[in-house]
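Deliverable D5.2: sample structural annotation.
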Amino acid sequence: MEHREFIDLSAAELRRYMAAHHENQYLLVDVRQAKEYAASHIPGARLLPLAELPARLAELPADRDIVFY
């Protein structure tokens, strides 16, 4: 398994990151429930509820940064 580095970002840091990188360089993953995602989410984010994450890790791209929120 490939090693992935994890860092914490503030909302302001995430905004700067998104402004400095093309959207095909990262994937935003919303780990909340579908109802919360439907109410509001960051544009372009993909829904992957936290409870499903371990079983679905293989779906995440290995060639992009992944931002979980």
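Annotation notes: Strands lie at 26-30, 46-47, 65-68. The longest strand covers residues 26-30.
The annotation will be released with the project's public dataset once the embargo ends.
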